[in-house]
TrEMBL record:
This protein's GO CC annotations: membrane
SUPFAM superfamilies: Fumarate reductase respiratory complex transmembrane subunits
Protein name per Swiss-Prot or TrEMBL: Succinate dehydrogenase cytochrome b subunit
Coiled-coil regions listed: none
Transmembrane segments: 16-40, 60-80, 111-130, 161-180, 200-225
Amino acid sequence: MNWFTKTFSSTIGRKIVMSITGLFLCSFLVVHLLGNLTLFRNDGGEAFNLYSHFMAHNGIIRTMEIVLLLGFLFHIYDAIVLNRRNSSARPINYAENHPEQNTGTWASRNMGLLGTVILVFLIIHLWNFFVPARFGGLDPVVIEDVEYENLYVRVVQSFQVWWYVLIYVLGMIALAYHLIHGFQSAFQSLGLTHKKYTPFIQIFGFAFSVLVCLGFAIIPIYFFFSQQ
């Protein structure tokens, strides 16, 4: 156990954990987006409410929520530890005295800031949607003689508030930048780099980051302007 602890508490080990949890969270984003796209169906929210009910009451999904939460916690904790180690190893005055040597993209230099913005957005998002969906507080709706919680109405009402739409869109912009750097960095940390395949990974990672975040951002924008 000692070697295991030392390995995964080292900088390389923590980067591996960051990479694995990050790619796992990417898979969650795809599933979550596909479910949210049911909001665009012209059925008064029936498909979305059925999807929400399934996600809230399926035993496998509820178990995966615990795994997802642990993935978030490990990802955030390792990010904080690595950021502190990088700050200690690279004093601030170095970047100030040698700005030309401060290499990397803007996203790579500001992953901590982007992660903080995403975390704040996530807390607001969970409080507004996840908590009422799991612990009550939503109005009921009857679908085929069965009563369900009407999360669809909560979504529509939330996306009528301009500042919430703004927070949501800014959160998706931050997430896009975070993913663009993180996707490529994850493969690099796992040693999955090759001059033949790395360019494809970079292109795929960029497309994935932009399209997924754009898909999420379109939802509040659509409901905000369609209800005006």
